Amino acid sequence: MRPSCIKCNGEHATRDCNITEKIAEPTCINCGEKGHLAAWKGCKALPVITKPLERQQRKSYAQATTVQRQMIAKPRLWPQRPCASPPPSLLIDSLIFERGSVQVLLVNKMDREDPTTRKRRLARERFERWRARQSQESLNMMRAADNE
Description:
Number of helices: 3
Strand content: 5-15%
Distance between the termini: 115 Å
Strand order of the largest sheet: 1-2
């Protein structure tokens, strides 16, 4: 593509043009009208970019790249058993203590435990019983030593 001068429509760049003074009646080389140069934004030969009437909702990059998944209800592996009051086995495992002037009831929820949580709880209880036995044995040994 060859350069063309916007002042005289010659086959040279505008910076190399011989016309250095202001042109009294400029002629557009794009549309041929008199009164403006080819670089004028209002020239009819130049394409007019129209803006949309409404603001278009755009997606962010994160929204466009993520896959939209439908939320599917997962089946419950351990169905909840309906119970109005805690069964007697839970009342045995319940613990009531006072914190300040408020009584707090802690209930062990054994009926809703999954197998892993149940195993962890049983292991913890086994360890606590072992530790209690050990401390009781050491206490008995100390008493026996004192009596001798």
